[in-house]
Amino acid sequence: MQNSAASQDAARALLAFWRAAGVDMDDAEAIFSARPATTAETRPPQQAPARVPFQIDPPAPKAKPKAKLQPADDAVNTARALAAAARNIAELRAAVGKFEGCALKATARNTVFTDGVERAPVLILGETPDREDDEQGRPLVGPAGQLLDRMLGAIGLDRKSNILISNVIYWRPPGNRDPTPGETIACQPFVERLVEITQPKLLILMGKLAANTALGRDETVTKLRGRKLSYSREGLKPPVNAMVMLHPAYLLGRPQHKRQAWTDLLFAEAWLQELGVERAAHL
């Protein structure tokens, strides 16, 4: 109320000033007096904004984890068809060379398949080719392979007499990175067919990738080594004897584990003797 009276007094003082200045204001007073007050007491009360019920925003949906890369189904089916049609190692080698379903092939220099005796009683599966393997197109020919040859020679095994060596991946990954699950699965039909064709008396799996790929497990080498295992697949009778060893590339950087490797070799030697596998004189 006090604010309203003060406002009207100020307006009348302004009109008096205009009148004194000679401004024609005959009707100004009447207009002003008749004008409805625009102050707060004459204005309709403002309504408070409608009260919005209290709401809790739903949590933002969590981003779905990216799916692991997998090869296209048709690539896997192609690998299975090519592998199944191979009747011997030569045909299987040609099938692997023809296969285009693994992206690693595009960056590798050579396909690295097998080395050794085709009908050997011992089949050794490693992991991935390294630089020397990629250059020569043969598995385990670099420093790790040379260490392996010395190790196997200590129990009467060598590439020219009684072993066949291969990998579970046939092309070197760029920069020696780990292969993706999809790249591994793409090669698996050929790995399985190699075991079926050779039917070794003993399958030696070197390294975690080789062991878990062949055995369908997810365990460390430490848990798997020193045990009599078996490799089985539908249509493969009887199952193949299998064992797990440390990969020689792993041993190159960890000489303190060579004692474990020697224990693995003695385990393999005893099992081979039990199986009646002929071996050369120990080096």
UniProtKB/TrEMBL annotation:
Under InterPro entries, the record lists:
UDG_Type-4/5, Ura-DNA_glyco_family4, Uracil-DNA_glycosylase-like, Uracil-DNA_glycosylase-like_sf
Keyword Hydrolase recorded: yes
Q: Which reaction(s) are listed as its catalytic activity? A: Hydrolyzes single-stranded DNA or mismatched double-stranded DNA and polynucleotides, releasing free uracil
Instruction: Please name the GO terms of the biological process aspect recorded for this protein, alphabetically.
Output: DNA repair
Task: Note the superkingdom of the native organism.
Answer: Bacteria
What SUPFAM superfamilies is this protein classified in? Uracil-DNA glycosylase-like
- Say if the entry is tagged with keyword Transmembrane helix: no
Name the protein family: Belongs to the uracil-DNA glycosylase (UDG) superfamily. Type 4 (UDGa) family.
Protein's recorded name: Type-4 uracil-DNA glycosylase
One family from Pfam that matches here is UDG
Can you give the residue ranges of the Uracil-DNA glycosylase-like domain? 113-266
Q: Which UniProt keywords apply?
A: 4Fe-4S, DNA damage, DNA repair, Hydrolase, Iron, Iron-sulfur, Metal-binding
The molecular function terms of the Gene Ontology recorded here are: 4 iron, 4 sulfur cluster binding; metal ion binding; uracil DNA N-glycosylase activity
Q: What class of enzyme is it?
A: hydrolase
